[in-house]
Amino acid sequence: MVTSRQTGAALSTSDLKTSLQPDPISSALSAHIELVQALEQLRAPIETFAAEVSAAIERGGRVFWMGNGGSAADSQHLAAELVGRFERERPGLPAIALTTDTAVLTSIANDYGFESVFARQVEALCRPGDVLVGMSTSGNSANVVRAMERAERLQVYRVGMTGAGGGRLRQCCELWLEVPSANTARIQEAQMLIGHILCDLVEQRAYNAANRH
Length: 213
Ligand SMILES: O=C(CO)[C@@H](O)[C@H](O)[C@H](O)[C@H](O)COP(=O)(O)O
Ligand SMILES: [Zn+2]
What we know:
Layout: H1 13-20, H2 24-38, H3 43-58, E1 63-67, H4 70-83, E2 95-97, H5 102-112, H6 119-125, E3 131-135, H7 142-153, E4 157-162, E5 175-178, H8 184-210
Parallel strand pairs: 1-2, 1-3, 3-4, 4-5
Helix pairs in contact: 2-8, 3-8, 4-8, 6-7
The structure holds D-altro-hept-2-ulose 7-phosphate (I22) and zinc ion (ZN).
Keywords: Carbohydrate metabolism, Cytoplasm, Isomerase, Metal-binding, Zinc
Catalytic activity: 2 D-sedoheptulose 7-phosphate = D-glycero-alpha-D-manno-heptose 7-phosphate + D-glycero-beta-D-manno-heptose 7-phosphate
InterPro entries: GmhA/DiaA (IPR035461), Phosphoheptose_Isoase (IPR004515), SIS_dom (IPR001347), SIS_dom_sf (IPR046348), SIS_GmhA/DiaA_subfam (IPR050099)
């Protein structure tokens, strides 16, 4: 069996199909465009996502991001947009990616196992009223699921961003954003678009608050 992940999940039929396409460029572009158009159906959950993140920040909370592989990079990218700047000048916003500190990640993985790398950080850093965002294409990464379960006990607002179906992550988050695709790369592209829209909405609110007279 062809496997692609640490989780041992088999490559999906659509992943395999993509590698056999006679015109991979056109097929990737068409699949991307079709998926982006389908994101209109996520308008309401995206608005809720932005409202929850803004409300958490306004009450002194923080937004934490986590994920594996491409989703780790995406977590860092989105945290950076909020701490630094997206498109407007406004105060820095408190966002933290749980994927960055190699000493913390390796000590937890070495002493407790890789499945605990995010959960242990959630236990140490998250407080009631914070937001935790889990980015996963399968929804089945054990370290992300375990961290969400830990966050529930801490009264942290939990957002799951997944591909079609949502895997195990769907069950343990309060807000679920489902990108309707089974192709890992296409899901990640759509998740970054959702993330950038979120940054725009949250930043706009922070900008308005900072410039109110
Ligand atoms: O970026 C890619 C594939 O596009 C990979 O690095 C991918 O993120 C890794 O295989 C992850 O381990 C997949 O985890 P998940 O999205 O199922 O939670
Ligand atoms: Zn990728």
